[in-house]
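QUALITY CONTROL LOG
STEP: pairwise intake check
CHECKER ROLE: data steward
CRITERIA: each record must contain a sequence immediately followed by its structure tokens, with no blank fields

ENTRY 1 OF 2
RESULT FIELD BELOW
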Amino acid sequence: MHLRIKAVATAMAAATIGAIAIPAAPASANVSQGYVTGSGTWTDDWGDEGPISASTRSYNNVVAMWQKILVADGYLAASGVDCRFGSVTTAATKRWQTDRGLVGDGVVGPRTFARAATRLTTYEGWFYYDGLGSNFIDFGRLADGKWDMSIGINLEWQPLSYTAATFDRCS
């Protein structure tokens, strides 16, 4: 009887460890789609995004989104949101990554986006990034799964494109 209990306990432990080791499948977005996108549950939409950096997709609305996150967390001045991933954004990104236990390489890829997504929350159908203090960023997710946000003088909502910089302050 004692051996049977031990065998059942061992099998249960192995099953538990196996279940923990297999992560849930992330949303199936792809940079080639041209936008930050997701489907189904929103909590995993950002875990497969990027990369953006000073040398990869360095001028677009996704860069503006990342810069707004850096502003919300106190790593970049609001005047630094210009849709260009330059040296100031790179330095701020490296500090942000290092402070969160990530490799501070200045490249915003799936791990960096996934870490940022841990600060996303929802309220009455809207999404927001909860930065430091009372700093937050409003987001939406359109019916086709594209994420959008609003910045600039006219507060126009724009999809988060990897290929275009369409916010007023991006010109």
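ENTRY 2 OF 2
RESULT FIELD BELOW
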Amino acid sequence: MGFGVSGATAIIFLGLFIAAGTMFTTTSATVEQVGEAQDDRQERLLDRRNTAITVTSAVYNNSTSTLNLSVSNGGSTTLSVNGTTVLVDNEYRSTATARVEGNAATDLWEPGEAMTLNVSTAEPARVKVVTEYGVADASEVTVT
């Protein structure tokens, strides 16, 4: 065997070594990202299990054309007011007028607190409130 064969063999082994190192780095990063994604999913599922809301009052005032809602956070998860969706007769309504325990400046809806909303609308029949985790409660509207 001459030097050419030994040199070629060394170059091939060096190339295999570099390729194996690159493959290990890529595989390691991918496994880490998948693990982090699974952890995030488990945290979201736990938050969803610990979320509970109840529409305690849904009253439509004919004289002011306003739907007055009161929703209670009965779970153990802090919710976002901006992450909460209100559907009035299956139509999206803004939560811009929401107040949590009388405070309109907060976005945090703590466990045990009540959120009130005033929505200008035509006379509705049904209202549904959905949290950022997909947990929802619906109620028939009382007309006064």
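INTAKE CHECK: passed for both entries
DESCRIPTIVE NOTE, ENTRY 2: The chain is about 35% helix and 35% strand.
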